[in-house]
Amino acid sequence: MKNQSSVLSLEAVDANEGMPLPAAGRTSAGQTHHGRILIVEDQGIVATDIERCLEESGFEVTGIATSMEDAIREASDSRPDLVLMDIRIHGEADGIDAAERLRQDFGLPIIYLTAHDDRDTLARAKRTEPMAFLLKPFKPAELTSAVEIALSRTRAEREMHERERSFLSAMDAIGDGVLTTDSGGRVRFMNRAAEELTGWRQHAALGRQASDVMQVVDEQETGSGGFRALLRIEGATGSDAGHECQVLSRDGVSRWLAIKATSIAGAGDSMIRVVVMQDITRRKRSEQALHRRAVLLDQSQDAIFTWDLGGAIGYWNRGACALYGFDQTETLGHSVGELLPSVRPPGEEALEVALERDGRWSGEWTRTTKDGREIIVESRLVVVQDRARRKTVLETDRDVTERKRTELEIQRLNQELQSRVTELTDLNQDLDSFNYSISHDLRAPLRHIDAYSKIVLEKADAGLSGESRNDLQRVRHAALRMGRMVDELLELSRTSRREPAREATGLNSLVEEVLLELKPEAQDREIEWRVGELPVADCDPTLARQVFANLLANAVKFTRPRLRAVIEIGHEMSGGQSVLFVRDNGVGFNMKYADKLFGVFQRLHRREDFEGTGIGLATVQRIIRKHGGRIWPEAEVEKGATFYFTLEPPAVTGTTHAGPIQTFCVREK
Amino acid sequence: MIRDQVEILLIEDDPEDLDLTMRALSEEHVCNQIQVARDGEEALDYLFCRGVHSERDPDCHPKLILLDLKLPKVDGLEVLEQIKSDPRTKAVPVVILTSSKQEQDLMQGYQLGANSYIQKPVDFEHFQATIKRLGYYWLLVNQPPPAVALNGGIPDELLSGK
Question: Is A450's CB within 8 Å of B17's CB?
């Protein structure tokens, strides 16, 4: 054994004799060797032979160790690229033990140099994953080629390892989660982001089903078959935006992820599914908030929509659909100007100018809806700026067409009313001059007729027949009667024009005064006056007095045929209202003519029976109406008449009063 | 200068009214001297001695003026206003004698200083009686203002009772 080795060594030495020693890493025979080698060999000569042989081939020998301890020290000091290890070395530990240590501690590749070939030793050595076995004795060429192969393999492995490390750190550096599975859907790899998003450590997840690692609790249905389909090797790659799922992590955090997947070829025929996941929870939340807001906005009756400064509509609520007739698909992205032709009142400043200056605008405009209707909307525009400083106009419109129409109608009615008022004013002025003229001019001829009839009667006293005298008397009567009519007509007109000046008026004393005035007419008559307790009324005393004067004079007049006249003036409550009445037992009248009673010049009796102008009751009714009251008769032919009246507007009905409503202002005197 | 003894200046445009008033006045012998003016202008000419009356004695004034309201040319109320706003004539009693008793006429008449307001009754007997009492009262019962007042010699303050 020793001999063999020696021979080989010698050969090697011989072969390199007289050659200059190339420096490590230097070029020799046109080849570059980047190899720094540690030799562990307890036989000095063999070691030296090998050293020489390697150096001649351009390798650098960093040291020669004879025991495991030596080897470890040398390796630690000089960091060789490769160790040539004799299995038999000094010390208790053999070469295999040393190799194991060097491999573990320094990651050094090993080439065994051995003369032994017993199976157990070789099996032990094999477990240390050596680069090669060189059986002693060996030729220098065998040695150098084995070393070269080992070194290049080591380099390649190191580079691969390096690449893998940089790949992994790159993977860990990216924000998106990356997870790969084999064709069976089992997790093969997860980067750090994927670990964070799923809550699974890679080592724990390895070999598990990806669908267990990523527990989907909600997903937005996109029609792509969902999350599980995305995990399958033959599955689609997902939409550009990614399939959106809510994933519950192992540590109980729920996140929205946008997931994309793709299949790539693995080793051999195998396929690898690469799943990329992006955390979109924040976006999703703001979307949901927006959605909630949009739902709220949809509740509004108003049309609410947005458009950018180019006019493109970005939001369109349900109210807008209802108001304008366009649905969202017809509006989103379309130009607001083209969709909704608008007419603004002339003379207003340009909308753009107002928006630019104030950031808002409000006003009214006429818009045309989808079905061609013209509507008037009250519009508010606000310029909203988002984080990216993009400007959007938020428009809120309300349909005021109906209100506008009503306003216009009211305006028109008011104008009409105004012109009516003007007309009435003119008419009143006409009536004034008419009255004035009647008052002055119409009475004069009557006076003259009467006067000259009287003069004729006196002057031609004897020369006139009884009949002629009678006729002249009739002329005089007619003139006087017309004079009275003119006076009463003027009185009626005056009454109609007068607004009641209300004050608390004791009706009993008012009636007393009227009765005094009636005394001459009641002379020689038997009249029983029954005057009840009358209230204090809130009325115009002058006008109220005219009412009583007329009604009582009528009562006296129409009871004339009665031997004993009974005239009652009273007060009663009816339907919560204070009602006054004047009742007589006179000739009465047929109720079917009752509606004629209050007309001007309307008479129900012959003049020769009862004198009168037919103006009195018309005046009475006017006065009562002026007070907001009403008057109504109750009569029967030959059985008397009663006139009921109120001097106040009717009480408000619908309230439940226990007692009568005090329509009259009753005051204790 | 002619010193007339005019007792009543009757301002009346209506010939019948004029006739009837004259009849009533003469019948009762309440006055002898009546000067008639047929419109407002003529009345003012007489009172202020203008036009055809320029020769009249300006110091001589009627004891009573009977004034109709509806007059041609110068309206009765305007005549009244001029009478009552001129110191020479404001002391002369003016009785409005007219057909109407329109509120506005009554109001303005009194506001302008009328001493009395009488509506001519349609009934001639009433008319006669009224005229008779009127003449009797103003010409016989009533004490006329002193001559110095009629010449405008009394200060306004005294006349208004202050």
Answer: no
Provide, as residue numbers in chain B, all residues whose Cβ is less than 8 Å from the Cβ of A483.
122-123
Interface of B with A (CB under 8 A): 14, 16-17, 20, 23, 69-70, 98-104, 120-125, 127
Q: What is the pLDDT of residue A545?
A: 92
d(CA A369, CA A71): 94
Q: Give the closest-approach CA distance of B133 to chain A in angstroms.
A: 18
pLDDT band at B84, cuts 50/70/90?
very high
Q: What are the C-alpha distances in Å from A256 to residues A174, A210, A279? A: 18, 17, 6
Residue of chain B with shortest Cα separation from A448: B16
Which of chain A's residues have a Cβ under 8 Å away from the Cβ of B123?
450, 480, 483
Taking residues B116-123, report their average pLDDT: 90
Question: Stretch B58-84: mean pLDDT, rounded?
Answer: 90
Closest CA to A84 of A16, A140, A10: A140
In the predicted model, residues of chain A with pLDDT beneath 70 are 1-34, 116-117, 221-225, 235-241, 347, 651-669
Q: Which of B77, B97, B99 is best to mutate for the A interface (most A CBs within 10 A)?
A: B99
The answer to whether B124 contacts A446, with C-beta atoms less than 8 Å apart, is: no
Burial state string for A326-335 with b = 16 or more CB within 10 A and e = fewer than 16: beeeebeebe
Q: Which residues on A lie below 8 Å from B16 (Cβ)?
A: 444, 448, 451-452
Query: Burial of A370 by CB count in 10 Å (0-12 exposed, 13-18 middle, 19+ buried)?
Result: middle
Question: What angle (nearest 5°) sits at the alpha carbon of residue B62, between those of residues B58 and B68?
Answer: 115
| Contact in structure between A440 and B69 (CB atoms under 8 Å) | yes
The residue of chain B nearest to residue A458, with distances taken between CA atoms, is: B125
Q: Which amino acid is at A507?
A: L
Q: Residue B72: pLDDT above 70?
A: yes
Q: Report pLDDT for A544.
A: 92
Mutual angle of helices A541-558 and A616-626, in 10-degree steps? 150
A480–B123 C-beta distance less than 8 A = yes
Three-state secondary structure of A92-117 = CCCHHHHHHHHHHHHCCCEEEEECCC
Min Cα distance B97 → chain A (Å) is: 11
What is the model's pLDDT at position A513? 92
pLDDT for B85 beyond 90: yes
Question: What's the confidence (pLDDT) of residue A654?
Answer: 44
At residue B156, the pLDDT reads 56
Q: What is the pLDDT at residue A651?
A: 59
**B57 touches B4 (CB < 8 A):** yes
